[in-house]
Amino acid sequence: MLDCAIIGAGLAGLVAAQYLVDRGLKVVVLEGRDRVGGRVENRVLSDGGYVELGGQWIGPGFAALTEIIDDLGLTTIGLPAKGNLVVRLRGQALEVPSSDEAPTLTPFEVSDLGQGLLRLRRLAERLRDDPAWRKSNGAWLGQDLRRWVSTNLRTQGAQRRFAEVYAAAFGPMPKGATLLEGLHQVNSGPDLETMLASNGGLHQKRVDGGMATVATALADRLGDVVRLNAEAVKVAYSDRSATVTLADGEEIEAKQVISTLPPQLAVAMEYDPPLPAWRKEAADKVAPGNVIKAFLIYDHPFWRDRGFSGQSSADQGAVRVTFDTTADNSNRGHLMGFFEGADADSLSRRSVSLRERAFVDSVVRTFGQTAAKPVAYIERNWSSEKFTGGCHGAHFSPGVWTTNGPILAEPEGVLHWAGAEYSTRFNGYMEGAVRSGREVAAAVARDLA
Ligand SMILES: Cc1cc2nc3c(=O)[nH]c(=O)nc-3n(C[C@H](O)[C@H](O)[C@H](O)COP(=O)(O)OP(=O)(O)OC[C@H]3O[C@@H](n4cnc5c(N)ncnc54)[C@H](O)[C@@H]3O)c2cc1C
Q: Which of 11, 98, 136, 317 could serve as 362's disulfide partner, Cβ 3.0–4.6 Å?
């Protein structure tokens, strides 16, 4: 019998497997897709360049992931081009020096935003450090996050910028999100203040060759421990062992199982005995975000000719943020953007060519007519992927994190749960996936000892 069967060969699954293999344990990684990496994936282009369809950016504090990248001998690179940022507000495109923080705002608005972020951070710290304060302020902490923002930031410019920074860090603010949930996000995610710096913050570094090379290098080390096209459909478990059934009927027995599927996919599998009702209810309420990551490929990075970095942000349009993600080995220019939230919801039901037109239209409004003729359009709609079902990560519905979140990660006997959504730090990010994979593998190794 195997020591551990790991379901999913994303970052969490691969890191967990490496941890256990390094300790001499017998492990298999069962991956439903015909590739490893999960929400990390490269698409190689005809000219030898590539685009990264999923997780890409490494931010400050991504220590566990950086350690793995270094250990694999891979290198990281910054944003390809220095240059000015373009911000489109109320229909007007403004060029902003890249060193200028919170550039679109008047000095009064900058100060307002700074005060607001500081207040939010102090509250988040208090929430973390002072359980008695949290208890006695329960009702106040349950107030609508948007309402807190509108009463604590006095200027519209600062409120708008706050929403942009918040969305870039954690995804669009869900309707009905409470202040408590916002503070939890602040405590578990990247530093909002750092993200205000246009050339710093979350979107700072990427792996040369793409993050997918991390996943393939980890899988190469693991060799035939990783099995592709091995979709798990059922887990039968007792106090002492578990049997994972694959879609083709094969049964794999192991002393312990680690599922690294996002919560909604994890509970959708068949279990014998069935999972406790609370776990299904909690996971069902975890609505995965909806983001379509898209690229416009140009015959050369025209924005650089004009001193632009390719980074832009806008308050209107289908695609509101762009980045230059041109691969170093390509002569072409790659502009990456996201369809997010309601735009992604409605546009995901339309044709690919309509989404391409919507992206081009947004970019033309920001960079001018030179952007009107890309040579290619590439996208990945993760919500329609059977083995992912949404992205970037899950956004917990009101009350779900606070009531059920911490226990979602609790093992069910020999059944363990790992992945970006279960991590208490960097929840939803690659760093969260790596940390969770390692921590859960360590718990499994302890149980097996
Ligand atoms: C568009 C996009 C952009 C992102 N950008 C960033 C970023 O810039 N920075 C960042 O830090 N994070 C980013 N993320 C998030 C990051 O990619 C994820 O948090 C991380 O990759 C999740 O890793 P994981 O191992 O937890 O889950 P996954 O990568 O989802 O791994 C789960 C694995 O399980 C497999 N699987 C599913 N069902 C089954 C089954 N039944 N049987 C067997 N296998 C199964 C899947 O195929 C997958 O390989 C982004 C995500 C997306 C989608």
A: 317
